[in-house]
Amino acid sequence: MKKNRFKRYIFVFAIYLSICLLSGCGREEPQEEREDSVIYIGITGSSGIYQDLERVNMELEQQFIKKLGVRVRLINTGLETGENYYKNRQMGVDIFGMYYDAFCSCVQKNLLLDISDYLDAAPALKEALNEKAAPQDLGRDGVFGVPKPLSDLHSNGVILNRACVEKYKFDVSLVRQAEDLEPLFEVIQLNEPDMVPWALEKRRNAVLERQPVADILDNCLSGILYEDNQPVVCNIYETKAYEEQVKLAKRWQEKGYLARDILTCIENGKNMVLAGEAFATECVIKPDETQYDESIYGDKIVVVPFENRPVSDTESDWVYVWGISADTRYPKEAVQALDLLYSDPEILNIVLYGVEGEDYEVEEDGRFSFPAQDVLDKSSYTNTSKWKYNTLKAGVWQGMSLDLQGDFQRFADSAVRSAAYGFWLDEQQLTVDLMKLRKIVNEYTPWLETGLCDTDSYLIEFRQRLQAAGSQRLVEEVQQQLDDWKMSEKE
């Protein structure tokens, strides 16, 4: 009897279990699946303080859920660019930025999502593509990436240590170009022996990195000089303008204006000026970046623009590109999320500046300020790569113009547009060994542009090696492609 009763229990339980399995009764979504239902935006190691990302991500998630109904989070990739695509994929990154060379590589390998089918729901991305120079034909149909929101327009200038400017009563209105700094350097060198007169903007950069001689068309040596801006290609390393720059670097090196460890110092120039370790460093002059620096660090620095107009070339538009992984599980939502990253003020404020009330406060006039604490001593979320984002759509800080978009537009209107704007070189048509020439350029320029060589003899040797490797033929072939492009533009 007990045996029959037990069989009946087994039979009933089996029926119940079958019903549950068919109906989904008691089923829970696996925790792993819930955690994976996120779109990740990759930010580089220098873009944020890692331990503060969680609270920033909580705020970001709320905004994206409200606007798109999806979870979106920032993830620190530890990479400077999107070049290591496979590491990005391993980390589950859906949206990431990369320099143009890495973008081309990703396109050729079919690693990026073709977003053309989703652009109708992404007006900001569509606008960015329509405003820029036509993208290079990379042999793939569809649009795979979008250039960063703001063209990389800028002129150069200098950041000076304010304490020294005020102490020695320097008249900064007399500083119109780099050479005008030399009398100031003499005073600093005499009275501030522990202070470097001029620090490089970044490690291993040229003494003057932000003052381009020409629009370089082959990422090597062939370019159009900005001083006359005619569609005539030359070897920029054979020009008087380049020679003047390297001779300035040599003069500053000989006079002791540069640090001895100029090629190994890992600290950037602005931080050295802020810390009182350097008197001056080169800087970008562009309304959003310049106004931000003056707002945040104005009590410690003085920003002085040189008398150089900004320049606009094809690379200005495409130097940095945002794309979406071909492996994303949420293509439509990822495109819409990237669109908000280009256009939505609330999203941008979080990505750029953190959480309102913790990382910044909003004053009565709508401008941002830091909570009552010195910014330099504050440990909070910090995005040091603001140039990759649409800063004009985000909030402005105390001391900045409320018409920042108008300021930027006027600045852009003043730019010199390269006569080769919109031109893309087809390297496949070249008969010269471009890699060999680039290797020579990379061998000589760090020493010439920091003055760490016998400039006269080194420059002669540099030019001779370039000529022996085919530099003149390269210039002629680039010129021919440019001429053909000009003719097609007229047709």
Question: What brief labels describe this structure?
Answer:
D-Maltodextrin-Binding Protein, domain 2, 491 residues, globular, disordered N terminus, single chain, alpha+beta
Summarize the structure.
This protein is an alpha+beta fold and 491 residues long.
What is the overall silhouette?
A: globular
DSSP summary, beta strand count = 16
Mean pLDDT rating: 88
Amount of beta strand: 5-15%
Q: How large, in whole angstroms, is the Cα Rg?
A: 27 Å
Looking at CATH, the homologous superfamily of the domain at 31-151 and 313-418 is Periplasmic binding protein-like II
Tell me the span between the first and last alpha carbons. Answer: 99 Å
**Low-confidence spans: pLDDT under 50, at least 5 residues?**
1-35
Largest sheet: 4 strands, mixed
Number of continuous helical runs: 18
CATH class of the domain at 31-151 and 313-418: Alpha Beta
CATH architecture label name of the domain at 31-151 and 313-418: 3-Layer(aba) Sandwich
- What is the fold-level CATH name, i.e. the topology of the domain at 31-151 and 313-418? D-Maltodextrin-Binding Protein, domain 2
Structural class: alpha+beta
Helix content: 40-55%
Task: State the strand order across the main sheet.
Answer: 6-10-5-11
